[in-house]
Amino acid sequence: MRVVNAAWQEWLSINVARGCTPGSLIDAMVQAGFADDDARVAVHHAFDRRPADPATTATVADPVTQPYRYDPMPVARGNLICADERDVRVLLRCERPQLVVFADLLSAGECTELIERSRHRLKRSTTVDPLTGNEDVIRNRTSEGVWYRRGEDELIARVERRIASLTNWPLENGEGLQVLHYDVSGEYSPHFDYFPPDQPGGAVHTAQGGQRVATLIIYLNDVADGGETVFPAAGLSVAARAGGAVYFRYMNGQRQLDPLTLHGGARVLAGDKWIMTRWMRERAYG
C-alpha cells in the first residue's frame, strides 16, 4: 500500500496552490496506487494546510462586531419578473435576510414531470461534514434526492436558463439541480447552506467555484400540512405550493456571510413534499 511521504505531500501542496480540484487530485492518487479513503484524507489535509488569503476568505458576519452589510441583491425589482420565456410573480420580499418568495416559476406540467422522472433515481440525502468535507447521512436530514447534471436534457436546460434569468446569476455559476423528496414526518433541521469558512472541511468544497452565495428552493407539489421552509432568525415560514419558490442570498459583495439565513424544512405532517434546489456559487462550477 502506498504511503503519503514527504514527496507526495509536496506534490499535493504544489497542485493545491495551482488551483487543482480535490476530485482531480484524489483521482490521480488512486490511479497511482493509493486506496481511495487514504487519498481523500491526504487531499483534505492538503487543503486544510493551504494558507488563508484574507482577500478571498469569506467571513461570517457578527451582529455586534461586524454586522452584515445588505448591498443590492441581483434579483430585479418589481412584482412581475420576466424570467427567460416565463413571467414569474413576486409574492414577498424581505430585506433582512435578503429573501424573495415567487409564484409560477414552474408550470404544473413541469412540476409533475420533474417528480415522475426523479422517483426511480432517489437516494438518501447527505450533508457536508464541516470537519472533513465528506458527505454523510445524518438523522437531521430525512430526505431522498437525485442530482441532475447541468444541461442534462431539454427540460433541465430550460429550467436552468429560467433560474439564471430570474436570479440574474450566471448559469455556469450554479451547482446541478437537486430534486428532494420528504415523506410524511420528513424534515431538515435548521442549518446554513454556505460552507463554514472556519471549518477545515469547507476548503475542500470551495476550492472549485468558490463559496455558495445564494439558494433557490422550488416547490414541486402542494404539501397538505407542514413542510414549510422556516427561517427562525427572521420569524418567517414559506408554505410549499407547487410551482412557487423562495430565493435567499447569504453572501454580499464584501464576502460576508449572513447568519440570519439559518433555515430548515419543517416536518411534513400530512402527504409528502417534493422540492428542487439550486445552489449558486461565486464563480463557474463544474
TrEMBL record:
Provenance organism: Paraburkholderia podalyriae
Ranges for domain Fe2OG dioxygenase: 173-282
Keyword vocabulary terms for this entry: Dioxygenase, Iron, Metal-binding, Oxidoreductase, Vitamin C
Which is an annotated GO molecular function term of this record? Answer: dioxygenase activity
What cofactors are annotated for this protein?
L-ascorbate
Q: Which PROSITE patterns does the UniProt record give?
A: FE2OG_OXY
Protein's UniProt name: 2-oxoglutarate-dependent dioxygenase
Kindly indicate whether the keyword Oxidoreductase belongs to this entry: yes
